[in-house]
Amino acid sequence: MQELIRKIRRILGDGVVVGVIVPIALAVVPPYFKQEAAPTAGAVQVQRGFTYALFGAPTLINGSDAPQFGLTLNDKPVPLGHLEMRPYTLRNLSGRNLAKADFETPITIKATPGQRILYVGVNPAPGHAPVKVTLTGDTQAVVDPMLLNINEEVSINILLYRAAGVPLAENPYADDSGVLSWTADIKGADLSVVGAPHVEMPTTYPIRGIVLYTAHLGYGVIALVLVGFLLSGLQIKKFSATKSTQSFKTKEILWLAGRVTLAWITADTVVRMFDYQIVPLFTWRDNWSIIGAFIATMIFPLPPDLLGDSKQATSDPAAPTIER
Q1: Which of 38, 103, 149, 178 could form a disulfide with 145 if both were Cys (CB 3.0 to 4.6 A apart)?
Q2: Is 0.85 topped by the overall pTM?
Q3: Does the keyword Membrane apply (predicted)?
Q4: Where in the chain is the domain with CATH 2.60.40.290?
Q5: Which tens digit of pLDDT belongs to each residue from 183-217?
Q6: How far apart are CA 229 and CA 232, in angstroms?
């Protein structure tokens, strides 16, 4: 056990290892904890996409002598500004292949009061037979059972008539509550309806001046890696030049980790200043303050007693002296 502890201390005492592990941990660990939980097994998911209006009302042509526009659907007049296309993706997340017999009842879509279902189109998974859809009046659609293997997807497009008009904006992350209801009895799985997935973007204003998430693309990624390792190497070399031994104490390890972290923040700042593909997160004062802090750590040495022991080494009375 003691030998294992000594090996771990020797590894942690290696400045190069610290300089590599710390930046990688800062880049990998935070996004890992921010990942959304994967859907649980035993679910058939209906995910709604971004809805959009068809043939919106011509608000710019509203004079008394303006031409009158008309729209018909199956030879029936439909007022403009009331048609909406709602795309959906049906996914098998149950963890097993679903046969037609597993659908104890078909998928039934019902419109709430004030909505009318005009058309439902189903595009089956590649290689599968077409799926039949039956409209019952204009308030209900029944999708026949289908073969749906693990992780396969089916596209469903619904043309909806909204009596109150298509809203200008609809929450893309909400489910279909208040518009459509989806029901089905599936053996070993539950049918769930969700909105569009959340996409996390880097915040416009960094928290306390520290950014642990970058959104560089293309050559910006290569430049970030090269500049980051270059500046980290300079920090490690500068720190190691003041060390007479290869072993590091806990305070020294933490100090070196901070210097390497500063190197990567500086690298991100430098690359971000020249990366036109993303929006800058800092003002020019913030950028040069970070660069100035990095330069200061490279120019000015640390006080000799900052990380060392506060106790001074006592002189050995038995040591030989030299008389002049």
Answers
A1: 103
A2: no
A3: yes
A4: 43-55+79-194
A5: 999 998 999 999 887 665 544 444 444 444 455 56
A6: 5
